[in-house]
Automatic annotation (TrEMBL):
The entry's keywords: Methyltransferase, Transferase
Source species taxonomy: Bacteria, Bacillati, Actinomycetota, Actinomycetes, Mycobacteriales
Domain of life: Bacteria
Basic and acidic residues: bias regions: 1-11
Region annotated Disordered, chain positions: 1-20
UniProt-recorded name of the protein: Class I SAM-dependent methyltransferase
Gene source species: Nocardia aurea
GO terms classed as biological process: methylation
């Protein structure tokens, strides 16, 4: 009805405006992972409504269009909506992608997948649990959330995968030709972990063990960093670290573990 007040989720988006830096192909590593992850693929294919939200896409929507194109290889009828809390960044939709103003409340949508990259990095650590809970409450029943961070060129990426019950896994992915050792990825850990890379915390122990295993695999360096990383990962598994085994050949170095392996000490359950 004309003149009716807007619903709360449209008039008061939850969150604060962030810097909004972005770039073409910046999120390619996480996108590739989403395209091939068994759980994500299953949830997308089985969803009654294959709606995906790109939360906080920034000053330019290029990565939202890229996400849509890549996920359509999994499910051709996927619908993607980019949400930005800054109304000046909301652009006109095209190519089957729409844009709207919204924040952690997801503008009232019920997506099967939410990608929030480089959003919570600009918030204090104390805000993570509430933000996660708010986003998860808006997911479809089998919905997933990817909360991640990457550098400006997308060469170093890290993300947490969550469902409505909480975090499921942590994945680190990096360009094997520009990263000297696994712990170099620490500067791009998600906000929930970036301040926990200190002695006594599980994430610090994992990265330290990865560096030791990387050094142990140094004799394989002449065969290239991917071969060296595969040997590193096998050694870590032999040491009891539950690294995920990828059956397909990966162009990136990828380290993925269950959340229970890296969950911070004395951190509130989200």
């Amino acid at each position: 009805m004309a003149g009716s007040p807007k619903p709360d989720h449209l008039s008061r988006p939850l969150g604060t405006i962030t810097r909004g830096t972005t770039g073409v192909n910046r999120l390619r590593r996480s996108d590739r992972w989403l395209m091939h992850d068994d759980l994500v693929r299953t949830r997308l294919r089985e969803a009654p409504d294959p709606l995906v939200v790109d939360l906080g896409y920034g000053a330019s929507p290029w990565t939202t269009f890229e996400l849509a194109a890549r996920l359509r290889t999994v499910r051709p009828d996927v619908r993607v909506t980019g949400l930005e809390i800054d109304p000046q960044r909301v652009v006109r939709g095209r190519d089957g992608v729409t844009f709207a103003r919204g924040g952690f409340e997801l503008a009232g949508l019920r997506p099967v997948l939410v990608r929030a990259f480089n959003v919570l990095r600009q918030y204090p650590e104390s805000a993570v649990a509430e933000a996660w809970a708010t986003i998860r409450s808006g997911l479809a029943p089998d919905g997933l959330l990817v909360d991640g961070t990457c550098d400006e060129l997308g060469r170093r990426c890290a993300w947490v995968l969550l469902d409505r019950t909480g975090p499921l896994s942590l994945t680190l992915a990096w360009d094997p030709f520009t990263v000297e050792r696994p712990s170099d990825i620490a500067e791009r850990l998600p906000k929930v972990l970036i301040h926990r890379n200190v002695a006594g915390e599980p994430i610090h122990a994992l990265l330290a063990a990865a560096d030791r295993a990387w050094a142990r695999a140094a004799p394989l360096a002449p065969f290239g960093p991917r071969v060296r990383w595969r040997a590193t990962a096998e050694y870590l598994r032999g040491q009891g670290y539950p690294l995920r085994v990828y059956r397909r050949r990966m162009r990136d170095c990828v380290l993925s573990v269950p959340w229970t392996s890296v969950a911070p000490n004395a951190w509130p359950a989200p």
